[in-house]
Amino acid sequence: MDMFNFWWREVLEAMGEYFLFASSFFVLFYIILKKPLWFRKVQKKLPKLSDYGRDIIYSLISIGIFASVAVVVFFFNGEYTHIYRDIETYNWGYYLFTWVYMFFIHDTYFYWMHRMMHHPTLFKWVHLVHHKSTNPSPWTAYAFHPFEAFLEAMIVPILAFGIPIHGPAIGAFLFFQIIYNVYGHLGFELYPKNFHKTAIGKWINTSVAHNLHHKGFDGNYGLYFLIWDRWMGTLRKDYNTTYEMTTERQ
Ligand SMILES: [Zn+2]
Ligand SMILES: [Zn+2]
After folding, report:
1. Distance between CA 192 and CA 243 in Å, rounded?
2. pTM, full prediction
3. How many angstroms does the Cα of residue 215 sit away from the middle of ligand 1?
């Protein structure tokens, strides 16, 4: 396969996943279940058509950048990655550890990169693109300025050149990432009532938490977890009350 075909294959794969999940969540929540689940809508209003359009265009550009990073990592430097194919190369315990590792590394990288993006200069020139959606929808998932898309994609070399990770596990992890990303921007809360107060739920990032980040422009910087937000004191003060208001029928 030549470089261009490799790039196209990556684009089609990422585009397929983005459209599959963003459109199915969109049809399900913004059309079919809109009325019965409206009480679970974080902000009781809908984005404008132009918001969807802008988010989709930026997401397509981001996908092109993700594919370019994949070309550099896997097409040109595939032999230097620490990816392994056979689980027995290490053992099942190690394999399970790498899953915890991937979630923790990605969440940590995302949290600090995201906080950096909120520096006034970077925010104005770069991160504002993502924040144009103050009431995000599933289409917002990859709506980044090209430079931010590049930084977002750096998780791939971080995983590929770090500790040995099973190849299909990285693939499944990145597949899960898009689903969780779409959920984070969904605008409807899916976790059960009082989840935010449970021993586990306390530490998990929710659609309410990320929605508040888009609405209020600060706090709640995490991706999968609220671990760093709680440790660093950046969890928004309106998180608990908004979570409760969104998960209880008025
Ligand atoms: Zn932000
Ligand atoms: Zn966002």
Report:
1. 10
2. 0.95
3. 10
